[in-house]
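Sequence, please.
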């Protein structure tokens, strides 16, 4: 069996790439290998705490491939502002022009895979994985667990941080394991949380992500032992500690005197899960006949909520490169074609990784860093052009191509209604 492109991994990023390439008309055969079953819409009564922060650029991309409208819009929450404040002092940043959406991860995965299955040039092979891969005479030979053999010009690894595609072709990685773990859960309050916020404590940050109705996703970062302690607490005791941490008085009032009123939560409505934090980057994103996207290429600290968005930017850049090469009569697996994608993707993912690393180092428990951090907050918040540059960088504006070759119409910017 032959195919132009085989995508390993039918998650949110792999299925998004299949949608972009499939609707472009540039390829006759794209195979998406997915361990998942055929998609069913999520139906839980409470929001899943595994939530994606979707930037304006990522939302426009989803609209361009027809997956945004497949989401249950009653379960998407838009925001037009973001607040960050600090336990060590009263420095804060209020990003009034920072907008985006919070959407449950399982809904995005459902929408992207469902759309991919509707495209004529895309075949979704569900409930199977790739068993092994090898290169032969300019092609990639792929054997599936279900016994099928596929010959392709290009295999794309969209199969996560433990990528079989990356490991099969000897692409190495460097990684940094953070001394923090995360705790994730959904909580409820009397009134809805109107904007996302993040407070930095001595033990690590707590992020609050508003969900539909009166629900909020909590991402609490602390030492592994502290996270295990919080996870084992009875639910009423956990809520008490959460409210106490959010309302705790700041330790100093340098360099600003702004105040932040935290929300008060009443109930935990989901299981509490814990997970380690890892930064991992592949030393190369491409090789002859091979490209990596999403978690297979890079993972970042979840603090900024950029993991899914980085995967989308990978998809947009790789799709453009492949479609342009197809117009010029080149094979999808051409090494020089793929190199253009790899260079750009490594550039923006490395920039974000360096920025996040510098922020995390700044949270060492040293008093000079406390003052410097608060001063930084005050400066950024007081200079509109500087604040705007930060907002535009986080939105992904500088990381994606100006032309979107998989569509005839780039959607206009759309702000949340709420």
């Amino acid at each position: 069996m032959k195919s132009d492109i085989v995508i390993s991994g039918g998650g949110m990023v792999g299925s998004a790439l299949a949608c972009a390439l499939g609707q472009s008309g540039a390829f006759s055969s794209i195979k998406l290998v997915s361990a998942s079953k055929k998609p069913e819409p999520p139906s839980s009564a409470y929001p899943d705490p595994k939530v994606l922060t979707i930037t304006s650029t990522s939302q426009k991309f989803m609209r361009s491939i027809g997956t945004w409208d497949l989401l249950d819009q009653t379960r998407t929450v838009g925001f037009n502002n973001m607040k960050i404040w600090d336990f060590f002092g009263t420095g804060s940043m209020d990003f009034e022009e920072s907008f985006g959406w919070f959407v449950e991860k399982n809904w995005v995965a459902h929408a992207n895979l469902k759309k991919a299955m509707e495209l004529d040039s895309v075949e979704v092979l569900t409930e199977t994985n790739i068993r092994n891969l090898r290169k032969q005479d300019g092609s990639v030979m792929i054997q599936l667990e279900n016994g099928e053999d596929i010959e392709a010009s290009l295999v794309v690894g969209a199969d996560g941080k433990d990528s079989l595609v990356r490991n099969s072709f000897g692409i190495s990685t460097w990684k940094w394991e953070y001394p923090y773990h995360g705790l994730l859960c959904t909580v409820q309050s009397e009134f809805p949380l109107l904007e996302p916020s993040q407070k930095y404590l001595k033990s690590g940050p707590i992020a609050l992500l508003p969900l539909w109705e009166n629900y909020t996703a909590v991402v609490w970062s602390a030492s592994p032992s502290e996270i295990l302690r919080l996870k084992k607490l009875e639910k009423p005791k956990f809520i008490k500690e959460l409210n106490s941490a959010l309302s705790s008085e700041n330790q100093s009032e340098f360099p600003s005197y702004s105040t932040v009123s935290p929300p008060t939560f009443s109930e935990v409505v989901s299981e509490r899960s814990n997970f380690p934090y890892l930064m991992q980057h592949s030393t190369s994103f491409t090789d002859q006949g091979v490209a990596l996207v999403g978690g297979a290429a890079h993972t970042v600290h979840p603090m900024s909520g950029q993991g899914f968005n980085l995967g989308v930017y990978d998809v947009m850049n790789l799709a453009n490169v492949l479609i342009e090469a197809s117009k010029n009569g080149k094979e999808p697996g051409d090494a020089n074609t793929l190199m253009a994608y790899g260079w750009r993707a490594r550039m923006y993912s490395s920039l974000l990784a360096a920025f996040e690393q510098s922020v995390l180092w700044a949270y060492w428990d040293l008093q000079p860093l406390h003052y410097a951090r608060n001063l930084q907050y005050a400066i950024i918040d007081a200079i509109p052009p500087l604040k705007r540059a930060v907002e535009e960088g986080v939105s992904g504006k500088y990381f994606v191509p100006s032309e979107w070759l998989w569509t005839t119409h780039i959607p206009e910017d759309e702000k949340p209604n709420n």
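The first helix runs from residue 12 to 24.
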